[in-house]
Design brief:
The structure is a single chain. This protein is α/β, with parallel strands linked by helices and about 160 residues long. It has a single domain, classed as HUPs (Rossmann fold). About 40% of the residues lie in helices and about 20% in strands. Helix 2 links the parallel strand 2 and strand 3. The model has no long low-confidence stretch (mean pLDDT about 90). Pathway: Cofactor biosynthesis; coenzyme A biosynthesis; CoA from (R)-pantothenate: step 4/5.
């Protein structure tokens, strides 16, 4: 039986922390679906198709990874993709309360789908897409936090140096 994990998020943009979690998950599961949310209540810097294209470039060498956009309830999308597990990343204790709420709701809506939390490597625990965009907008060097293709896209999108 194939074990499939779905890793949802806005990935606006995909960071080295995201990539680290995806690499870890691909060692644990037969298939990892990176599910990029079209509507998250956030105002993304990149359109959905841009976020998908960037993820495809960053994750191109990972055979077990599929990248999809979605605009439905996560558990419905997970069922559609026959995912057994929802993968979530925890960077710090501050992430836990929000993730705990999401997990409770998802468990109520789809009790057959488990949630698994993974922590990124220590060097990525402080990286978030929001911080990368903010530091980039303010002129900071974000090249160490994202793949080269993402850095180029950020430079063009945010007019950073």
């Amino acid at each position: 039986m194939t074990q499939t994990a779905i890793y949802p998020g806005t990935f606006d943009p995909i960071t080295n922390g995201h990539t680290d979690l995806i690499q870890r998950a691909s060692r644990l599961f037969d298939k990892v679906i990176v599910a990029i949310a079209a509507h998250s209540g956030k105002q993304p810097a990149f359109e959905l198709q841009e976020r998908i294209a960037l993820a495809e470039q960053v994750l191109a060498d990972m055979d077990k990874v599929e990248i999809c956009g979605f605009d439905t309830l996560l558990v419905d999308f997970a069922r559609q993709k026959r995912a057994d597990v929802i993968l979530r990343g925890l960077r710090a204790v501050s992430d836990f309360e929000y993730e705990f709420q999401l997990t409770g709701m998802n468990r109520k809506l789809a009790p057959q789908i488990e949630t698994l939390f993974l922590m990124p490597a220590e060097q990525y625990t402080y990286i978030s897409s929001s911080l990368v965009k903010e530091v980039g907008r303010l002129g900071g060097d974000v090249s160490g936090f994202v793949h080269e293709a993402v850095f180029r896209a950020l430079r063009n999108k945010l007019a950073i140096k």
